[in-house]
Amino acid sequence: MNTTRTVSLIGAPTDIGAGHRGASMGPEALRVARLGERLGARGLQVIDRGNLQGPLNPWLPPENGYRHLSEVAVWNMAVHTAVRQELQAGRVPILLGGDHSLAIGSISAVADHCRDQNRKLRVLWLDAHADFNTAEATPSGNIHGMPVACLCGNGPAELTGIGNHAPSTSPHVFRQVGIRSVDEGEKRLVREAGMEVYDMRHIDEVGMKRTMEEALADVDENTHLHISFDVDFLDPSIAPGVGTTVRGGPTYREAQLCMEMIADTGRLASLDIVELNPAYDKRNQTAKLAVDLVESLFGKSTLIR
Question: For this protein, what is the EC number (predicted)?
């Protein structure tokens, strides 16, 4: 790992797109778990940009199938601008969420950057959920269930139009790993889009090693690898601090192997850490686990390999 790399921590303290309050406290929980210091100890230069500002969560019911659409758009435009600036300066942006709707802003920024640099984008979506819902398919209207759909152009103009290109991405840039909860209407949308999904059954059948080999198969030196890490990717027995727990997720060792194999590519160039909800956590253990896994993403391993 090149020791001169600089990472930028960007806090986005909002639960505007979620169905539970509390993800707004995620950035501070990650800082309390010493994310910056731990990455610094790995030889990275760490800049903490503090927290972005945005509208408060009005906690209203959905309108026309979307909850808090205008507020979600404001937050995502702020995220887009901040992530874009760090990428243009040659740094590795790490978005500290906040809920997963914020990935619309971060990944649209990464996609714009890849077009500027003529690089290939690969997004690894580590999550219990496919997040490919639409206003018609969603039971709740919570936009944290829609970011992949919005990034692929399937959503309201306020969200699909963030960035310099609409749609920002297409389904073929995504590899979804750890999926185990997909709404009924959403299943059809995922299938029609041709999304590459490595669900928990796939991981059970072939193992995490083979799954990650498949997900990373054509990552090369011209690939910008973006990781969107929803903490509910992990089994709730080891990571209770999320608002939307789904049993049967990756174990600690499976998650470590996943992160170490991503690090082995040497292509990690941007990262979201989202849906950490300290209100549901026990003594910040989920934040500490997330930091531990992010260290592995940046090259920590048991032995020098």
Answer: 3.5.3.1
Residue-wise pLDDT tens for the chain (305 aa)? 444 799 999 999 999 999 999 999 999 999 999 999 999 999 999 999 999 999 999 999 999 999 999 999 999 999 999 999 999 999 999 999 999 999 999 999 999 999 999 999 999 999 999 999 999 988 899 999 999 999 999 999 999 999 999 999 999 999 999 999 999 999 999 999 999 999 999 999 999 999 999 999 999 999 999 999 999 999 999 999 999 999 999 999 999 999 999 999 999 999 999 999 999 999 999 999 999 999 999 999 888 76
* Sheet containing 223-230: order of strands: 45-51, 6-12, 92-97, 268-274, 223-230, 120-126, 174-179, 196-199
Name every residue whose Cβ is closer than 8 Å to that of residue 219 and which is 6 or more positions away in sequence. 122, 225, 265, 267
Q: What is the pTM of this model?
A: 0.97
Both tokens of residue 114?
Answer: 């890849």
Which residues are marked as active site? Answer: 100, 127, 129, 131, 144, 230, 232, 275
Residue 163: which of 113, 202, 227 has the closest Cα? 113
In angstroms, the CA 218 to CA 298 distance is 20
How far apart (Å, rounded) are the C-alpha atoms in residues 267 and 261? 11
Q: Which two tokens stand for residue 298?
A: 């940046």
Q: Which fold has domain 6-297?
A: Arginase; Chain A (3.40.800)
The secondary structure element, H or E, covering residue 47 is strand 45-51
